[in-house]
């Protein structure tokens, strides 16, 4: 998980900041991991870093998953595509991909389960820590609250959001709605192949979606980040299938 951040640290880099005193006083197991982003040609110096507050004792949305490290690196490498775009991250948790997008000039809305206020509060703290101005929204997949109707993203991101197959249909319902609500939008997601690739393919067809791109997550991340990550992680880009009649 955050081992990837440590592996990118060069000796001249300052350590990540300490967690805020009010959180430490509560006795929670908070750590801050630092994630570096570098030009491919300059492996020993970095362009910027993002600090992430993680809480190992809490739920899934409170630490940085490998899928998020891979998606964040993709956003950084493809930055000309993301700069200036309206972007929504679903199930963002600690939000590394969305924060990288904000850093390179995207207009970012970070979302996570409306029923997990501690995750949303952690997102706020992480944005403040990195001095990044992102909108934060409680958005539960498959629930139709008013703010969802106002989102018209150019790009939707989701890292490790395909992990509980009972949520897949709800997630696809929300993604399909967002894709329909804004022309030309794409959904870019990274997932562990353990999650059932065939089920994802089946649901894409069911929801009238098509795969535009499928990449092995390890095919583009730098070796020093890959060495501390494990698993079969894929990046897939999804759009509405024009051949389907959408209601
Ligand atoms: C495995 S974590 C991934 C977090 C983060 N994207 C990452 O990769 O580090 C899954 C995330 O999805 C969120 N989530 C789970 N079920 C959800 C739902 N029904 N609606 C919205 N978010 C949900 C969790 O709160 C959590 O942040």
Give an overview of the whole structure:
- This protein is of the alpha/beta class.
- It has one domain: Rossmann fold (3-Layer(aba) Sandwich), CATH 3.40.50.
- 32% of the residues lie in helices and 24% in strands.
- It contains ten helices and nine strands.
- The strands form two sheets. It has a seven-stranded mixed beta sheet, sandwiched between helices.
- α5 links the parallel β3 and β4.
- α3 runs parallel beside α5.
- The longest helix has 14 residues.
- The termini are far apart.
- The structure holds S-adenosylmethionine.
- S-adenosylmethionine (SAM) binds next to α3.
Concise overview:
With 247 residues, this protein is an alpha/beta fold.
Produce the secondary structure layout.
Blueprint: H1 3-7, H2 21-25, E1 30-37, E2 48-55, H3 66-77, H4 79-82, E3 86-90, H5 96-103, E4 107-112, H6 117-129, E5 135-138, H7 146-150, E6 155-159, H8 168-181, E7 186-192, H9 197-206, E8 209-216, H10 223-226, E9 233-240
Parallel strand pairs: 3-4, 3-6, 4-5, 6-7
Antiparallel strand pairs: 1-2, 7-9, 8-9
Region (Disordered): 1-24
GO molecular function: methyltransferase activity
Family: Belongs to the methyltransferase superfamily. METTL23 family.
N-end to C-end Cα span: 41 Å
C-alpha-based Rg, rounded: 17 Å
Strand adjacency order, main sheet:
5-4-3-6-7-9-8
How many β strands by DSSP? 9
Q: What's the helix-strand series?
A: HHEEHHEHEHEHEHEHEHE
Mean pLDDT, as a whole number?
A: 89
The hetero molecules present are: S-adenosylmethionine
| Count of helical stretches | 10
Total discrete domains: 1
Structural class: alpha/beta
Strand content: 15-25%
For the record, what CATH class applies?
A: Alpha Beta
**Named CATH architecture:** 3-Layer(aba) Sandwich
- Which word captures the global form? globular
Main pleated-sheet profile: 7 strands, mixed
């Amino acid at each position: 998980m955050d081992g990837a951040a440590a592996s990118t640290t060069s000796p001249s880099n300052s350590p990540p900041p300490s967690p805020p005193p009010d959180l430490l006083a509560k006795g929670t197991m908070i750590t801050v991991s630092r994630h570096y982003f570098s030009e491919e040609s300059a492996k020993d110096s970095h362009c910027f870093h993002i600090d992430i507050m993680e809480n190992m004792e809490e739920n899934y949305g409170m630490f940085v998953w490998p899928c998020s490290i891979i998606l964040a690196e993709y956003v950084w490498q493809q930055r000309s595509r993301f700069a200036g775009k309206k972007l929504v991250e679903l199930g963002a948790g600690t939000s590394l991909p969305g924060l990288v997008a904000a850093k390179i000039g995207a207009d970012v809305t970070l979302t996570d389960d409306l029923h997990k206020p501690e995750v949303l509060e952690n997102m706020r703290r992480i944005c403040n820590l990195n001095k990044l101005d992102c909108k934060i929204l409680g958005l539960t997949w498959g629930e139709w609250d008013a703010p969802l109707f106002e989102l018209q993203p150019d790009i939707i991101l989701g890292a490790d959001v395909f992990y509980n197959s009972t949520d897949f249909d709800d997630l696809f319902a929300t993604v399909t709605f967002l894709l329909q609500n804004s022309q030309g939008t794409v959904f870019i997601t990274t997932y562990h192949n353990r999650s059932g690739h065939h089920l994802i393919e089946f649901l894409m067809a069911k929801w009238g979606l098509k795969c535009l791109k499928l990449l092995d997550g390890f095919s583009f991340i730098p070796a020093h980040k890959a060495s501390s990550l494990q698993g079969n992680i894929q990046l897939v880009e999804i759009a509405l299938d024009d051949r389907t009649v959408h209601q």
